[in-house]
Amino acid sequence: MPRPDLHRTDLHRTDLHRTDQHPTDPHDTRRRAFPAASEGDDSPHAANRSSTWHGRPLDRPGEDVEDQGLAFDLGTLVTRRRTFGALGTGAAAMVLAACGTGSEDSASGGTTSASDGGGDTASSGEEMPTETAGPYPGDGSNGADVLEISGVERSDITSSIDTDTTAEGTPITLTMTVTDLAEDGAAMTGAAVYVWHCDAEGEYSMYGDGLEDETYLRGVQVVGDDGTVTFTSIFPGCYSGRWPHIHFEVFPDIDSITDAGNAVLTSQLALPEDVSTDVYSSSLYDGSAQNVDAITLESDNVFSDGWDLQLATVTGDVDAGYQVSIDVPIDTSTEQEAPEQPGGEGPGGPGASDGGGAPPAGGAGEPPEGAPDMPSDGGSDQG
After folding, report:
1. Which of 78, 137, 226, 267 is the most buried (most CB within 10 A)?
2. How far apart are CA 364 and CA 348, in angstroms?
3. Rounded distance, CA 192 to CA 257, Å?
4. What is the DSSP letter of 9?
5. How do 171-180 and 186-187 pair as beta strands?
6. Which of 52, 24, 31 is nearest to 40 (CA)?
7. How far apart are CA 76 and CA 70, in angstroms?
8. Any idea what DSSP says for residue 340?
9. Residue of 115, 118, 142, 143 whose CA lies nearest to 129
10. What angle do CA 79, 83, 89 make, to 5 degrees?
11. Gyration radius (Cα) of the chain, Å
12. Cα(122)–Cα(329) distance, integer angstroms
């Protein structure tokens, strides 16, 4: 809507501040310039002498502040008058969209990317289920403890910390978005995430035969301001009796990882069948193709009670590698509950038991003292 009083050529803007005209005179139809000169530069004409106003770029550098247009005025309202609350969020968003500022697009884009993991679990209010850590956690709850080793806080976990051994396999980049449902789904910034999984042959470092001194495919990352942690690793193999999976534990902070009992969540993520089948065509994954063909998510001892929240989103290909992502919503106001697993409780974290499977080649070696016995028929280890 045009504002004729502000564009009259026969009215000098200094008339808007005449002291001989009472401001409440109903016959005075002239409008006060916005914003007032006293709130910024010495006069509204300062816009003619600069391309910015209070550090903000002017959309129309050659014109006065009050002639910069609706988008500029709204920006001033946001920063100086804080009137979005009065307008209402929805109304303000509609006005911004009409002005073509792009602010709403940026905000929604950020939200979308943050919830693109294994489905929109954070917004649904459902917590990631607690699962067994299995008999090979390496967190001190079952013998070996990588969390006491200097250097465990790392993003690339393909190699052992103190040796030159590197696990071979199809590369993956794992991104986990960790949020706190007790804080309205806010990023769980500062939390520590410990990730571990088997190698291409289905064996676990620190436990497999001859792997007692290896620490590959284990590492810790601290959740950033955006709620994410990222690990560089390889696609895990599939051993008998278990669906392809990755273990993880979430701790309140990096200082609390020295005690596995401090974990606020112990769980596992599942990998998609089609991707697993493609990966296991490689000779590096000897035995995995046969093992994955012999099991389903429905028959897996961990995921059979439901896997919607735990099935990761995976993109990429065998040659270039894969990007694996998942949302990890946690309710820190409640205690994690040990899942019901066949075979009862055992070492290795909440719900650990001896019901799961054995690696496809070479077995898992001799577990450390206190670990559950491996069945002679390769029937279960719940790893």
Report:
1. 137
2. 15
3. 7
4. T
5. antiparallel
6. 52
7. 10
8. P
9. 118
10. 105
11. 30
12. 5
Q: State pLDDT tens for residues 167-196.
A: 999 999 999 999 999 999 999 999 999 999
CA distance 346 to 353: 5
pTM score of the predicted model: 0.63
DSSP string, 191-254: -EEEEE---TTS--TTTSTT-TT--TTEEEEE--TTSEEEEEEE-----BTS-SEEEEEEESSG
Helix axes 103-114, 89-99, angle to 10 degrees: 110
The residue type found at 271 is L
Structure tokens at 76: 């001033």
- Determine the 3-state secondary structure of 171 from DSSP: strand
Tell how far CA 205 is from the center of its chain: 26
How does pLDDT run across 294-347, given as a tens digit for each residue? Answer: 999 999 999 999 999 999 999 999 999 999 999 999 999 998 876 654 433 333
Q: Which domains does the chain have, with CATH numbers?
A: 4-111 (no CATH), 117-330 (2.60.130.10)
Q: Distance between CA atoms of 20 and 24, rounded to whole angstroms?
A: 12
- Token digits of residue 73: 């005025």
With contact defined as beta carbons under 8 Å apart, do 168 and 200 qualify? yes
Q: Max Cα separation, the chain? A: 103
Cis peptide before 57 (omega within 30 of 0): no
Burial 319-332 (b: 16+ CB within 10 A, else e): eebbebbbbbbbbb
pLDDT of residue 56: 55
264 φ/ψ sector (left φ>0, alpha ψ -120 to 50, else beta): alpha
Sign of the torsion formed by the C-alpha atoms of 287, 239, 272 and 300: positive
Q: Which of 24-33, 167-176, 194-203, 352-361 has the lowest average pLDDT?
A: 24-33
Say how far apart CA 328 and CA 229 lie, in whole Å.
Answer: 11
